[in-house]
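Batch job 17 of 40 flagged for manual review because the log was empty.
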Amino acid sequence: MLEDPDKSALIVVVDDDEAVATVASRWLRSAGHETLVAHSGHAGQRMLQNADPDLALVDLDLGDMTGLELMRWMRQNHQGCPFVMMTASADVGDVVQAMREGAMEYMVKPVSRSQVLRVVDKALEELRSRNRDQRVLTDASISRHGLVGRSPALRRVHDQINRLAQCDVTALITGETGTGKEVVARAIHSASARRDGPFVALNCGAIVESLQESEFFGHEKGAFTGAISSRAGAFEQADGGVLFLDEVGELTPSLQVMLLRVLQERRFRRVGGNREIKTDVRILAATHRDLFELVEEGKFRQDLYYRIAVYELQLPPLAERGDDILLIARYFLEQLHKDAGAPALRLTPEAEQLLMAYPWPGNVRELRNAMEHASISATDEIRPEHLPPRIARPARARPARPASRRPDLGSEERERQAIMAAIAAANGNVSEAIRTLGIPRTTMYRKMRKFGLLSKKDSGD
């Protein structure tokens, strides 16, 4: 993998004009690179297959095949060597087709030494950048708690995960929808002394109120209609490990009381049972809501809040993580295409600028949704027209800015703008906007109500 700028590159030159191929090879060697030369498309196939070069310099017309056919053959055979195309034709259509097929650069013959070296250096630098990013992605995804990125905000999260893994306190993980709260909870569990114990996740907002107590504490046979057998609840299932309570702010008042009692006494009874069961469980809770605000409104017990928020870890929204956006996007593209055995699609600079300018109200979850959308319509590279309309269209009206900077807006204003853009792109169809944003329906309507985007008919008033 080419990363070091001081390391020479192995470059294959494929051109049926022996004089051109020989001269280009000599120029590249004079710049410190190693070269191999082929004078036909089939000879180039054999060389590319066996040599594992860093770059290929290929003529568009090879006699026995075209350079484009050679590029397609490489993709079909899962060879990841990037191409620079040379052509004697100044036809714009040929150039456009070559770039669409995946060529990194192109040159129109006749070529000069300075032109060849400049174009090759540019292609190699882009290749080195991709390889560095890929190494970062691999390191981050494997050894850094399942979280991809290298921003200061994410480094602070890693530090807090490490601290929480060294102790056994109850913790509250907060952050917007889609920021990765369960991923963080699993990371804490995996790095802690409870790693060999179970990890049980329970979404408090997705349980029917009448079944909440049974889901948490289990039930005995005949405890209620339909209880045809005894069943262990989440606390028993998680014994010796971690119980992750997602959307803990959605707990009913009665269950808040029961949960407080279990946290205090470390014992509980199944629904319909008389036997007290001891529990050894670490609670990690999560919410996208402001629990302290719910306490002040009387909707969440203050004593329970202090029990579960012994330590609070707040996850940054994706919009505040800078260049992590592009690292994560490339990571998702790599994952999406790994099973197919083909090189991942690459993002054009224009597409990258749009990703950096978008406010990401759905955070990492929405970014994955966007990359899945783009990968369906793109063939070799992702351009602006391959991105979801809510990302491509609204951003075109915004002035360009450096990729590492973010708009000076509060998170609520970013959310409001992105939700309005998604609804507009869906021609007012809220269900379609929900699908494209990748957020739960209840969250969407709650945010719409908060931002005054619901009509009386929609809000039920």
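Reviewer: the log was empty due to a logging misconfiguration, but the result itself is present. The domain at 10-140 is CATH 3.40.50.2300 (Rossmann fold). Unflagging and moving on to job 18.
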